Task: structure prediction
Amino acid sequence: MTGNHRDKSITRRRAIAVTGGTVVAGGLAVAGYQAAFADTGTTTTDTAATATTTASESTGCMTLMSSVTEGPYYLDGALVRKDITEGKSGVPLTLRLTVVDATDGCTPVKGAAVEIWHCDAWGYYSGYTTANPGGSAPAESEDGSTANDNTYLRGYQLANANGVVKFETVFPGWYTPRTCHIHLKVHTGGQKEDGTYEGGKVNYTGQLFFADDIAEEIFTLEPYSKHSGSYTTLDNDMVYDGGGASSGLLTLKAVKKADPSRGYKGFLTVAIDPDAENTGAGSGGGGGEGGTPPSGAPTGTPPSDAPSASASASS
Result:
């Protein structure tokens, strides 16, 4: 099982870039997708998550958190959409993220554009489908999906009046030398245009993380199990700093505890300073020495017709 092996060759680095004002706190059957992606209003889980958030907010706002690098696999022009899977297979994952203003009593940030992107079950990113994820994995083209190689598992959602966005996706895989994660940006001041989000500025650049025991269990399932090698746990990751929800660790709720293949729901409250700006491009946070990619990181370039790629140096 890939997740049982720790990558001992990776130095435990806590790559942090202070941004001044950004804070955060906090199978595969059709039936599984329907259950994980159901959006029927406020559920018991949603209510519990809201109650936890309210309790946290009553003690002040949340714990100050630094932004981190956007990574080498960022692409401009992601689409505004709730479902970003495009047919990619994997364990269903519904994300419910709440954006609040840390400078104004944690009031909801209506209209904030939350952008996420992550690798597929074998560790491949859209736009970089020939980049080697490390270990042994089938070629990305062998997954059998009809996903667009330039856009899958990328997207924006605009926060509602309560500051909430929801995404339908699949549990990410992994690639050397990183732990399982999802990249995140929060934008304000722009607008939806031509199916994407234009203008404004990036207030927060970060990453979302998953508990090791849940990730490792999922990686025993198809299609994840076809990717073998040394999986990096949270303790050995170069970006996650051990701070729990304040460092991007998601609260995860299984759709059906006895059957992880049915999917998970993930929750986190992201508190921002709408006046702050941090794009995460080339700003440390997860890079190797001198801002170069960490040793053993996947390499590759997007196809010539891919959207414009960021020049950031790290994963």
The first strand starts at residue 23 and ends at 25. The radius of gyration is 18 Å.
